[in-house]
Amino acid sequence: MVTLTWPLAAPAPEDMRWLRVEEPSAVAACRAAAASLAGRLRFPAARTDELALAVTEAASNLHKHAREGLLLIRIGRDGGTPGLELVTIDKGPGFRDASLAMRDGHSTSGTLGIGLGAIRRLADFCDLYSVPGHGTALAARFWPERQQPVIECAGLIRPISGENECGDNFGAVHTGGTTTGVLCDGLGHGPLAASAAAVAVAAVIEAVLADPRTEPAALVERAHRRMGHTRGGAIGVVQLTGETARFSGLGNITATLLVGGTRRNMLSVPGIAGHQARTIRQYEYDVAPGTSVILHSDGISSRWEAAALPGLGARDPLVIAAAVLAEAGSHRDDAGVLVLRP
């Protein structure tokens, strides 16, 4: 097993492609996007062919069975070797038995049923999460040479419809037994919002790398000062050490401790990082074994219910992020989500 290196960073716009899969022609577009990114990473020809087949199967499955299907192909640079990540989300009917759906020969439409099973075989990692009536989230990872990494955190960002750059940004770093994660939602949309969020995330990650003892409230304060020349935004910083989570938030960032079928929200204070911050506070929470920590922007409704997504907290962080985005994400706003495991 290989443990991914740190820090974790959101992909640049040129490193990711979100594609709607509503027409048959979208399948070819998804395959072409995957091949283009694989070429940039110098995937061997045989591995590129495997990736293209997996993406074709994933996109075809969305077209045939899903509603509001979206496919993401992106470069992940948080490991020792850059790889590609495939994510699909939809508002379809979902599967009653996701593990059965991943087996070769299973079909809900009278076809051969080899699509999802093929993705599982071809990918270095593949997982499917689905609940009837709540759609489906699929996540898969591919490296030029096969490997099985240990994934400790993951994030997703999706720009508002019509924009290329996302105003949400995230980062995470692990130092000395402590994991620190940050999510920022730049005010508004487009390049100026993206710039504000990038400034905030860089301020936090740089500070933690310089002094791992820096606590969340001080990190939010630092980001607030750095963002003074930007349009500002909302920011949340969480720090996980052992069985303790410390959180500081300024503005509308939702922070949740998800364990079992329950979620516990962490407190944030009103304000706009870079412009309005009367008081920056920090709160401490006990973290039970098996907890996943989720931060997301207001492009994802805070009203999603943990009970409606049974067993989600125990899944891979990228699957958790994708399922939350599928369940509660809005196309009328930038959306960002970061998932950490203590």
Descriptive notes:
There is one protein chain. The protein has 342 residues and is an alpha+beta fold. The chain folds into 2 domains: 2-150, Heat Shock Protein 90 (2-Layer Sandwich), CATH 3.30.565.10; 153-340, Phosphatase 2c, domain 1. Helices cover 27% and strands 30% of the residues. It is built from 7 helices and 18 strands. The chain has helices at residues 25-40, 45-65, 98-101, 115-122, 190-210, 216-226, 317-328, and strands at residues 2-3, 8-9, 16-20, 70-76, 83-90, 125-130, 136-142, 149-150, 153-158, 168-175, 178-186, 233-241, 244-250, 254-259, 262-266, 283-286, 292-296, 335-340. A hairpin with a 6-residue loop joins β4 (70-76) and β5. α1 (25-40) packs antiparallel against α2. 52% of the residues are buried.
